[in-house]
Amino acid sequence: MPRRACDGTRFLVAFRSAVANLAAHVDEVNALNVFPVPDGDTGSNMLATVRAALDAADALSVGPEADAGRVTHAVAQGALMGARGNSGVITSQILGGIAHALDGKRQFNGLDLAHALDAGSKKAYAAVQRPVEGTILTVIREASAAAIAAAERDNEAEAVLVATVEAAERSVAKTPTLLEVLREAKVVDSGGQGLFRLFEGALAAVRGLPVSGEQEVAVLADGVPRPAPRLPVLVGGAEKTAYGYETVYLVHARPGERLDPRAMSAYLESIGDSVLVAGDEAVAKVHVHNDRPDAVVAYGLSVGTLTRITIENLDGQASDVREARAAAFLEDAASVAGTWPAPAYGDPFARAMATSARTAMAERLPATRMPLGVVVVAPSEGLAERLSMTAEGFKEYVAFRVVRGGQTANPSTGELLDAVTSTPADELLILPNNPNVILAAKQVASMTDRVVHIVPTRNCAEGVAALLRLDPAQDAEENAEAMTAAARAILSVQVTEAVRDATVSGKKVKKGQTMVLDPDDGLLALDNDANRAVITAFGRMKGGFEIVEVYYGAEASLEDAEELASRIHEVAPGAEVEVLHGGQPHYRYLISAE
Predict the structure, then answer these.
(1) Could you tell me if 30 and 43 are in contact, meaning their C-beta atoms sit under 8 angstroms apart?
(2) Are 342 and 295 in contact, with CB atoms under 8 Å apart?
């Protein structure tokens, strides 16, 4: 990257180094979680988000002196679709503001960079309904202000980035003075620290020492670090695949640009299988199987504009249904493009689809579109089953979808958008069932032309209460209001163990102690014994209870839960206490009372 100006290729070098630096410090950022619960995932969410952004930029296959506006646009689109958790959504907004400010620029100088950072700050603030100082928002605002001051003195991109990094570090250091919860926990803001690490990695690249090795560190899927997956391989001419998701969409070339179906197919085959790209330079239809539909959508956004996006989970579909869907794809692709090239450039699945197109048309069934749809997020099979059972009464009238995710595995904006897009309904409700998913859900509402309302449920117990209030005869807005009230009308608590010494709600907490937390992470009770802690919390709750539901998690047994239920019945003798298998990670119990 030249000291005075930067093009798209050099921006991508710096961004790659930024992602690598965050990956190297992801445990550090996760450990800064304010509350001492075993779900510190700020760093993981941010890393998943910027990795999705990097994947989208890499899909451009940029050459020397690539257009800066085009690269930053791809980065922003990838981040938006891959954003996970509040920290990921805010990071995606920062990148979106930067891309907007650099739109149409082949290169940018120091003043351009400062303006772009300022635009990123403003877009991030606008995305948060009630901005809180002492967070990543403060860090980007103060860093961008320092960038502007530096650019007005010296218009070199490197000088501006140096000022940005230094200001971000200072801003992070003072976050505990602005936010009491940070001061109590004796930590700096984790999101702000993650942003500083991104800037730090970018500066290393500018100075000729880019951070490397990020791809060897970890690949995040569903927000959880894991080794890089192996791509499907062909053995004996037959395709091996776990099916996963089928992603289909139309991609249209942007004004003045052309699609390259062969290049698109080559890239998509590197991230999935059963690839078919049917079309021409103006419009093409894309078909891919893989376990990351958000990555497929993000790639499409990097090369054009998308319509008619559908995502289907193929794991539970019989082979004849999959063939019928393949036939439908080919028939529709032909109607869209008029003519289409030989499918998939040697993909054996594509050849099978061509055969199916002639023999399986009769098996196609039209999808029924309903007035109302509901998308819920669940962290475990047990809670997903409970939510689905609650919804059984209205499934004849309402389309219902479950998205897996929760603590440490927040679903991305792209995954939520996929669920909304693939739900056959005119209006939709999203139940995030986690405070860290609400912001991503709100982003989805602004990314689709369908009516989407958020019911801001904070856990699955609130989600169950909300679903019980749903009325299929009402529209999404009316239901959202009533369901939100129903969710807030119950009392719910989560029980977990402290993973470190800390101060929570003004009380000293020791590592290993059981904490009973309200939905906003307020400390209700603390004890070395889990059952005693829960009973203490119930004693502090005002009012009698008629129904108590105890969802036991992955770290508790049925025997443990039954014993706790007996203790609860002793202190609330008039209540019916029901034990249910939740299987949720990290939280020993999720308990609701009404």
Answers:
(1) yes
(2) no
Q: Are residues 480 and 540 in the same domain?
A: no
Q: How far apart are CA 552 and CA 556, in angstroms?
A: 6
Tell me how far the alpha carbon of residue 63 is from its chain's centroid. Answer: 30
- Domain contains 184: yes
Give residue 79's identity as a one-letter amino acid code.
Answer: A
Distance (Å, whole) CA 318 – CA 404: 22
Whether residue 550 sits in one domain with residue 408: no
Of 89, 88, 179, the residue nearest 134 (C-alpha): 179
Q: Centre a 10 Å sphere on the Cβ of residue 212 and count the other Cβ atoms it contains.
A: 14
CA distance 242 to 246: 11
Within this chain, do residues 409 and 261 fall inside the same structural domain, yes or no?
A: no
The type of residue at 284 is A
Pick from 572, 561, 557, 554: which is nearest to 39 by CA? 554
Please give the C-alpha separations between residue 193 and each of 22, 46, 123, 215, in angstroms, as whole numbers. 9, 11, 19, 21
Give 238's strand partners: 235
In the chain, the N- to C-terminal Cα span, in Å, equals: 61
Return the CATH number at 380: 3.40.50.510
Query: pLDDT tens across 325-350, in order?
Result: 555 555 555 444 443 333 333 343 34
Residue 38 within any structural domain of the chain: yes
Sign of the torsion formed by the C-alpha atoms of 340, 302, 450 and 245: positive
Which residues constitute the domain of residue 265? 242-363
pTM: 0.72
| Low pLDDT (below 50) residues in the chain | 1-2, 214-242, 318-320, 334-367
Of the candidates 553, 528, 504, the one whose C-alpha atom is nearest the C-alpha of residue 186 is 504
Q: Write the CA distances from 565 to 461, 490, 531, 535, 589, integer angstroms.
A: 17, 18, 9, 10, 11
